[in-house]
Amino acid sequence: MDSKELKQKYLDFFRSKGHAIIKSASLIPENDPSVLFTTAGMHPLVPFLMGTPHPLGKRIADVQKCIRTQDIDEVGDETHTTCFEMLGNWSLGDYFKKEAIEWSWEFLTSKQWLGLDPKRLAVTCFEGDKDAPKDEEAASIWLSQGVPKERIAFLPKKDNWWGPAGETGPCGPDTEMFYWKKNNVPAPKTFDPEDKNWVEIWNDVFMQYNRTKEGKFEQLKQKNVDTGLGVERVTMVLQGLEDIYQIETFKPVMDRIRELSKIRNPDGGQMRSMRIITDHIRGATFILGDDKGIVPSNVDQGYIIRRFIRRAIRHGLLLGIDYEFLTQLAEIIIDLYKDDYEELGRNKHFVLSEIEKEDRKFRETLTKGLREFERLAEGKKNICGEDCFLLFQSYGFPMEITKELCEEKKICADEKGFNEEYEKHKELSRVGAEKKFKGGLGDTSEMSIKLHTATHLLNEALRTVVSKDIAQKGSNITPERLRFDFNFDRKLLPEELKKVEDLVNQKIKEAIPVVREEMSVKEAKAKGAQAEFEEKYGEKVSVYTIDTFSCEICMGPHVKNTSELGHFKIVKEESVAAGVRRIKAVLE
Ligand code: SER
Fold first, then answer.
1. Which domains can be identified in the chain, with CATH numbers?
2. Cβ contact 298:306 at 8 Å
3. What is the pLDDT of residues 410-450, one digit of tens each?
4. 225 Cβ inside 6 Å of ligand 1
5. Which burial class, exposed, middle or buried, applies to 339 when counting CB atoms under 10 A from its CB (0-12, 13-18, 19+)?
6. For the residues 132-145, what does the mean pLDDT come to?
7. 473 Cα distance to chain centroid
C-alpha cells in the first residue's frame, strides 16, 4: 500500500463513521503569532476545539501538511522528518475516548482497512499528576480491544499530554500507538517505550482542558478528540520497511542524490547527509509552495527555509556535489505531490527560482566561510558564541552548520553564546528601527509618506463622521497600506465607512497645504492638537496642520499638499481587541 492509498482509506474509513472531510490548511498559520508553522492537524481547528461551531458539523477528518522543526537535530536517522503529512480525525464535543480508541484499533488492525499485526502494536496512556488523573479509562478500553496489559505503558505529561505549541489553548491527556518495526526480530512481550524499534504512529488526544495564561487547566466547554497519524511512518510500516526514506515519496529523491553523488554504497554518515538533504528540500519546497509568498530570509518562516536550503547545500558538498542540484530534487517533489496539493504545481516556477537564488547567494560565501571556520577552529577545543555569530553574519552559516562542522572536528560550538549574540543583535536592530521609525513610519518611501498623511486625514474624518471621542490607538504603515487602530465599541456601518472615505477624498481634492510648526506641548494642546501618547514627547514638538481640518503632534514626514495623495480607499474594518477597531486603507 502506498501513501496515496493509505490517505484514501483513512478518509473513507472516517467518512463511514460520519466525518466530514476538509482540505489541508496552509502551512503558515493565520492569526496565530504564537507559532511559525502548522505543526499538527489540530492547529487550524483551534477555534472549533474551543467551542465555535464548525459549519460541517461535529466530526471532521483531513490530511494536513505539517512542519515541525523541534526535531531538526534528529533528522538523518531512519524515522525523523521535519516535513510530513498528518491524518487526523476530530470530535468537536461529540464522541470521546471509547469511539476514538475503538476506531483507531479497527482502522489499524482490521483486514478491511490496514490489517496491521496486533502482535506488533503497543500503547501508552497518561499516568496522572496534580492537573489530571491517571487515564485508567483509556487503558481499560485498550484492554477491551485485546491489547495485553504488558503492552500498555503509563507515562507522564512530557510524553502523554498534548497541547498546541503556544502556551495557552486546548490540551489534554493522550494515548499513543506504537508499531514494532523490526521484521527479523519478534516484538518483545513487554512494551518498552524507550526502545527505538517501537515507532510512534498515531496519537489520540482527549482534549478536555484549556491551559490558561496563568498555567491553570480549566475544563473546556466541550470534550474533544484530536487524533494525528503520521502518513510517512505508517506507509513505512505498511511496506515492511524500517527506513522512512525508502517509501515511495522519498525514494526518488534519495535515488537522485545518490546518482548525483556517484556514491554506490553510502556509509552511515553519507546516508545521514542524503536523508537530511531529502527532508530539508521537501520542507523548503512545501513552505515556498504554500501560496503565501514566503522567501528565504533571516527571520521567521523565511529563516527556516534558508536554514533548510543552506544545510542541504552543505550536505551536498559532503557528498561531493559542488553545484546547484536542489532544484531538480524540488521538481521531483512537486511532481509527486502536485495532485494532492495543487498550490505546489501552481507555484512551481516561484519555488524553483527562489531555491536557485538562495543557492547562488550561499555558494558565494560558502567556500570563504569554510576557510574562516578552519582558521577559527585551528588548535581550539571550542568555538565561542561570537565566532559562531560571525560565521552567521558574514558568511550566512546557520548555527546547525557551524555545529556540524564542529562535530566533525570533535570540538564544541557554543550554541548558547550564539543565541545570546543573536538576541543582542536583534535587540540592537529593533532599537535602531524604533529610532528610525519614531514617527510611526515603517520606512520613508514616497508611498509611506503619502499613507502617513492619509492617516491624519482618516483620523479626523472618523472624528467628524463617527464620534468626537475617537483617538488613535496605534498606527502601522507599509508601502502598500496604512493600518489605523482607534477606540470605538462597535462595527462601523457601511454608510459610515463610505462617508469617512468620501470626506478624506474631499480633503485630498481641496489640495490643502500640510503645514509643520514647532511649539511646546502646552501650546500644541491649546491649539487642540491630537496626540497619541503624551509622555513620549519632549519639550518641543512638531505639529502638522491641514487647514482647520486636522492638527496633530507628529514627527512626520508628510507630503507638502494633500493633492499628492491620489484616491483613498478603505479595504477593511475589523475589531482587534475589546473596544478597539482597526481600519486598513490604501491609496490608489
Ligand atoms: N495533535 C496531536 C499530535 O500532533 C494529535 O493530532 O500528535
1. 3-245 (3.30.930.10), 268-437 (no CATH), 446-587 (3.30.980.10)
2. yes
3. 999 999 999 988 888 876 655 443 333 333 343 456 788 89
4. no
5. exposed
6. 97
7. 28
C-alpha span between 453 and 458 (Å, rounded): 9
3-state secondary structure of 519: strand
Model's pTM, two decimal places? 0.73
How far from 231 is each of 13, 64, 247, 478, 512, CA to CA, in Å?
Answer: 15, 10, 11, 40, 63
With a cut of 50, say whether residue 356 has pLDDT above it.
Answer: yes
Tell me: the pLDDT tens digits for 387-403? Answer: 999 999 899 999 999 99
Distance CA(272)–CA(268), nearest Å, equals 6
CB of 369 shorter than 6 A to ligand 1 = no
CA gap 193, 115 in Å, rounded: 23
Q: Output phi, psi for 246, to 5 deg.
A: -105, 0
CB of 135 within 6 A of ligand 1: the answer is no
CA 37 to centroid of ligand 1, rounded, Å = 14
User: What does DSSP say about strands 152-155 and 121-126: parallel, antiparallel, or unpaired?
Assistant: parallel
What is the band of 33 on the pLDDT scale with cuts at 50, 70, 90? low
* The dihedral sign for the CA sequence 376, 380, 385, 388: positive
What are the tens digits of pLDDT across the range 189-222? Answer: 999 999 999 999 999 999 999 888 888 899 988 9
43 Cα: distance to centroid of ligand 1 (angstroms) = 9
Q: Which amino acid is at 475?
A: S
Residue 161 near residue 207 (C-beta atoms within 8 A) = no
Give the number of other CB atoms < 10 A from CB of residue 14: 23
